[in-house]
Amino acid sequence: MKELIFKFIRTLKTERNASEHTLTSYKNDLLQLLTFSASVLDKKPESVTAAEIDRLTIRLWLGDLSEKGVARNSVARKVAAVRSFYKYCFKRGYVEKNPAQLLIVPKKISRLPKTLQLNEIINMMDLADGSNPQSIQDRAIMELFYATGIRLSELTGLNTTDLDLNLKQVVVFGKGKKQRIVPLGEEALIWCKKHLETRVRLLTKNSDNDARVALFIAPRGGRMNQRKVQRIIKEYIMKASESVNKSPHTLRHSFATHMLDAGADIRLIKEFLGHASLTSTQVYTHTSVERLKNVYNKAHPRAEK
């Protein structure tokens, strides 16, 4: 079954242009099912076939996940991974029956995105004073996140040629390798320009061809990776805010919420964020409604006792 899992993952990558995050999550979910099934069948994982795993085994696995307190959203993704995998196996004749066909995907819990206040954003930006190439790059990264709302994977995938300072825009490759063009604000333009002027000083003898075209450079000279960016953002947010959410996604959420609060059309925000469906973007309308309620309760003389 393990070979089938890897075949399935390759198919997702080549035929469906699935994101790296989806590929990694689905692979881990399916390998987890394989390990559990092997224990139920009293066999070694490498000897278990896809056809041996029936609906009961899958349901036992899901029950085990619930008992261990795995979040509902994570369980929903695992169910989606198993359904997609067995649909693939059934269509290609690897199994005679699809044990996952009737599995119901648990309803996800909608969580309102956490954001930073504008003054916290300003404080965070000011911490990167541009006194050296690394500080300039940190500032450019944060300004670009907040100016565009792009995803972490999209930012680390940027090359210098994707940035057009004259047209004040950046070309972004999102989920499924879909390309979109996002405009840049003045602050982002200023700091991206400064970064391009000092970026060469971040390259090292270890820098390969990929790093030499990458927009952002890691400390050792390679292309900036996602984990390093997460650490950078966390460090700055910790110093500038008491928010418990200290990730690049916080800046993405802040971008969308602040734009919506200022009157931007939600359909335009959808395009900026690279969402395939307006449903994904509508979560930000709930955030704004909550803010309106808070303002109302504080301002109206008869709102609260």
Q: What does the model show?
A:
The protein is mostly helical and 305 residues long. The chain has two domains: 2-91, DNA polymerase, domain 1 (Orthogonal Bundle); 118-297, Orthogonal Bundle (hpI Integrase, Chain A). The chain is built from 14 helices and three strands. The chain has helices at residues 2-15, 20-41, 55-67, 72-91, 118-127, 133-148, 152-156, 186-198, 209-213, 226-240, 248-261, 266-273, 278-281, 283-299, and strands at residues 163-164, 169-173, 179-183. Strands 1-2-3 form a three-stranded antiparallel β-sheet, with no helix packed on it. The longest helix is centred in the first third of the chain and has 22 residues, at 20-41.
Largest sheet: 3 strands, antiparallel
Order of helices and strands: HHHHHHHEEEHHHHHHH
Number of helices: 14
Estimate the strand proportion: under 5%
Number of domains: 2
Total strand count, please? 3
Per CATH, the superfamily of the largest domain is: Intergrase catalytic core
The rough form would be described as: globular
What is the CATH third-level topology name of the largest domain?
A: hpI Integrase, Chain A
Structural class: mainly alpha
Radius of gyration: 23 Å
- Helical content stands at 55-70%
CATH architecture of the largest domain: Orthogonal Bundle
Low-confidence stretches: none
The CATH top-level class label of the largest domain: Mainly Alpha
Mean pLDDT: 86
Neighbour order of strands in the largest sheet: 1-2-3
